[in-house]
Amino acid sequence: MKAPPRLQSLVDEGLIDTVVRQLMSGKEAMVYVVRCGEETRCAKVYKEADKRSFRQAVDYTENRRVRNSRETRAMAKGTRFGRQVTEAIWQSAEVDALYRLAAAGVRVPVPYNFLEGVLLMELVTDANGDAAPRLNDVAFTREEAVQHHASLLKEVVRMLCAGVVHGDLSEFNVLLAADGPVVIDLPQAVDAAGNNHAKRMLLRDVENLRNFFGQFAPELLGTHYGDEIWHLYERGLLRVESVLTGTHARDTGPVDLGNVLREVDDAREQEAARRLRMQLPRL
Ligand SMILES: Nc1ncnc2c1ncn2[C@@H]1O[C@H](COP(=O)(O)OP(=O)(O)O)[C@@H](O)[C@H]1O
Ligand SMILES: [Mg+2]
134 FRET partner, CA 20 to 30 A, in 76, 82, 118, 211? Predict the structure, then answer.
């Protein structure tokens, strides 16, 4: 196809040879399949701020590193220059996150280049070499659901160990590649340590995974991995190898019936042991 105007400069620079086809027009970006020499890649063209939806909310931009106080003031005032700075930070945030996460061993698309609001990255493919489907486009058996849920939780932990919360993780932002799930769409990713909303965002990410895979494996619906992961993270105890149980009970909020029953069982056993020790008759 004829290169759309936003990709023309990358063609002129020789970073792209040809534009094969448009893959998607998402909420915030247009995604194209492109050829670069021998390779097929993916070009994500960010929409301009006023054409995007909700994600550039204060949660996500809080504590983003900015170069100097002039830029900070301009952003706060919302001047034209300030909006340009905000825009540049928003767009480059995804590239930053991709490099950071790839270095931490998280399976994300390999980033190749970022130029004029276009991110060139690996095209994630299925076993046939076609663009990989989103989780939402696939039906799973119970076993597959349990397995993918576990491996994505591992990725969430790996991300958090690298200091990153995805912030928009769901069945729409995970692709199913030939070798397993790949996490995409990271412009809103936040610094876990410096953002007051990080905990809420992490809990929501984990809940989205649970609710999606829970459709195929209902036993997942009673799990509380988010609370458990954050609890360990806050105490500096979270490791990539941490073994999770999914049974961490919240301090407040809905009662985990399984946990309560286990505690009742424990109490009953302790009482029975005490009676045995004291040589009291059994109840
Ligand atoms: N690296 C990639 N490989 C294959 N498909 C991709 C890739 N990146 C994005 N896509 C496709 O484009 C869609 C939109 O990309 P995404 O990064 O989620 O942007 P948006 O902000 O528009 O949701 C995805 O749902 C996916 O189908
Ligand atoms: Mg998306």
Answer: 118
